[in-house]
Design brief:
Residues 32-51 bind DNA. The protein is mainly alpha-helical. The protein is built from 12 helices and no strands. α1 packs across α2 and α1 crosses α4 (54-79). The mean pLDDT is 89.
Length: 231
């Protein structure tokens, strides 16, 4: 990938914004570097000065989108510490993914949108270390230590169950033609389901500040790694 030193932040933002717009409209196979350059009002040479290939453009775009989601949670949870509790955090992650189509496509392994990028080692590493399953697996031990969730399951089984519930809800929401017949908003149903699945409890006696500090540290660490990747 071309060096990032000396890049114009304005041009980078314009190019990535144009790349995202075209990617969502046409899919990976329908976009060329020339298309991106034309939409961003820069020369093809400028794009190639910053990125070696089309794949590199989209990989940086995906990384930035995931980073934006993570930083968005950090900001929201700093203002409202209760978002760090499991039955509040899982609906937040789903809502945030729904608001960011590329994150959703990456999480769903959507080759129609992402094309070859979906199988790129860097995409796979992004999901493996910073996707919803990775975050859930990192957060469950914190919630268990603080007595917020049941501990009579093997950790891996519990993580798998919570991932299935959360990602299954995301998939239903993505399929807009599916109309859930619920008496509550679907997001509230997910929150209740997470609480029931995990046996959420102990909130009256917990130290919310301590829980929030540990949960936020997971997201801060993830953000630092992603920021380093785009430095």
């Amino acid at each position: 990938m071309a060096t990032r030193t000396g890049r114009s932040a304005d041009k980078v933002a314009r190019i990535l914004g144009s790349a995202e717009e075209l990617l969502l409209k046409r899919g990976f196979r329908g976009v060329t570097i020339a298309d991106i350059a034309e939409r961003a009002h820069v020369g093809k040479g400028t794009v190639y000065l910053y990125w070696s290939t089309k794949e590199d453009v989209f990989l940086e775009l995906l990384t930035r989108d995931v980073l934006t989601l993570i930083n968005g949670f950090r900001e929201a949870a700093t203002r409202n510490l209760e978002l760090t509790l499991p039955h509040r955090l899982c609906p937040y992650l789903v809502r945030s993914a729904l608001e960011r189509p590329l994150v959703r496509a990456l999480q769903a392994n959507d080759a129609d949108v992402l094309g070859l990028v979906v199988d790129h080692p860097r995409s796979q590493e992004l999901v493996k270390h910073h996707g919803a399953p990775a975050l859930i697996k990192a957060l469950l031990p914190i919630w268990r230590r603080h007595g917020l969730v049941r501990t009579d399951w093997e950790l891996g089984d519990q993580a798998y169950a919570l991932q299935s519930l959360t990602l299954g809800h995301l998939e239903i929401q993505v399929r807009k033609h599916v109309s859930p017949d619920t008496t509550m908003p679907p997001e509230d149903v997910l929150a209740a389901a997470v609480a029931a699945l995990l046996g959420v409890g102990g909130e009256a006696a917990m130290d919310l500040d301590a829980v929030a500090a540990e949960v936020l540290q997971v997201f801060t660490t993830s953000a630092a790694i992603l920021e380093g990747a785009n430095a």
